[in-house]
Every structure is written in C-alpha cells, then in structure tokens.
Amino acid sequence: MIFRQLFDRKSSTFTYLLAERSGGEALLIDPVQENTEQYVRLIEQLDLKLVLAVDSHIHADHVTALGALRERTDCASAMGAMTKAECVSVWFNEGDKLCVDKLQLDVLYTPGHTSDSYSFRLADRVFTGDTLLIRGTGRTDFQNGDAAAQYDSLFGKLLKLPDATLVYPAHDYNGMSVSTIGEEKRHNPRLQIADKQAYIELMNGLVLEDPQLMDVAVPGNRRCGLKAAA
Asked: CB–CB of 108/181 below 8 Å?
C-alpha cells in the first residue's frame, strides 16, 4: 500500500493520500485548497491516478481542495450523505466502502463535531476527521455540533475498535502525527470521564474562539472550495 501523511501548517490539517499500488488509483482525504499543486505533483511522482477526493466533514478552518482537484484531475468529490455541501459528486453512508483498486475503506458515521462528520477505517488504522484527535476531541459548539452525539461516536464506535488500531486525525496542534485507540483510551484527557453526562458537561463548558477562517471556509466548503457563480 502507498500511504502519505501531508501537513498544512497554517490550519494544522493532515491530508492523507492512499493507493493500493504504484500505477494505480488513489484517493485523498481532507485536502487543503492551498496545497493543490503539491498533491497533483506528488500523485504524478508516485505514478498514480487520483480518482476520489474526500472530506470527512465541512471544515471551518480551511478551504477544501475538493473542487480544485476535480477540475485539475477529473476525480470524483465525495462527502457523507448528511453534508450540506451541494457540489459533491459522490455521497456515502455508514456501512459503505470507499474503494481505489482493491483498497477498501469502511465508512463510519461519527457525528458530534458536526452533523456531517464521518470516519474511514482500514484493517489497521482509522481516519477520524475531527471526531477523535490525538489527546483531544473535536469541539461541538457550532455546525450542528452535539456533545451527546460525539460521546456516542467515540464510545459506541471508535473506541470499540481494537486497541492497536492506528489513529490518524484531520488535525493536530501539538506535534503528534499518529496515535492508537488504546493510547487514546489511556491518555486522552477528554476520554477520562465517568459517563455521557459528564462528557456533555465537559464539552459544553469549553470557551473557545471561532476559527479565524470560519466565515470564509464554511460557505466556501459548501461549494467544494469553488468560487460562487457570478
């Protein structure tokens, strides 16, 4: 398998490139618009054909590259069925699979950070979007966020995966690039709570500033990063 983890310093966003083999199909998870040229160049260098660009949810801290990649490479753009984005060409649901050649990622619906948050699982790893971060969890105070729903996504789905499962989130703010489910169970402070109500109170008690690009990124990402028609 070909696997690359790419990092956008401005928004602290991880983008993931996956393919089964050199010369084959590839997909990108959570690409950033400003890095489109980097993605296209890397895909060419690795002798891959980009067929799918995926967002785990509508991001509020950067503009997505879904639209730009579709224009540059003719790939499909994909988001979950709950999304309010109207520009994607493929919608997926819980239980579906994202496929490039024989590589298959299982789709998990993991709302809470937003109502359209999804995660993607391979046998040995899971891409958790903003639902589960390394030593943290995604905020739940905008875009139909819901602390109770996030608790269910975490404790009812993601934390039930095998402890050795590698955790690759959509963001990191502390210089950590990968964790495991077992590691997060033991050391993630947001997960050391007694029950669902305690988690709700914890998340609802956070006082956080809005992302700097929120007013630009959210409407822009509903258009897959493409400019509005004149």
From this structure: no
In angstroms, the CA 18 to CA 14 distance is: 13
Containing structural domain, residue 157: 2-208
Cβ distance 137 to 189 under 8 Å? no
Q: Pick from 39, 34, 9, 72: which is nearest to 220 by CA?
A: 34
- Using the predicted structure, report yes or no on whether residue 95 has a pLDDT greater than 80: yes
Cα–Cα distance, 145 to 111 (Å, whole number) = 8
- Which tokens hold the place of 47? 């002798």
**Please, which residues have CB within 8 angstroms of residue 69's CB and are 6 or more apart in sequence?**
28, 31, 36, 39, 40, 50, 53, 75, 77
Residue 74 is encoded by which pair of tokens? 């003719």
pLDDT of residue 183: 98
Extract the tokens encoding 73.
């490479």
The count of domains in the chain is 1
| Bridge-based pairing state of the strands 125-129 and 166-169 | parallel
Q: What is the pLDDT of residues 133-165, one digit of tens each?
A: 999 999 999 888 999 999 999 999 999 999 999
CATH of the domain at 120: 3.60.15.10
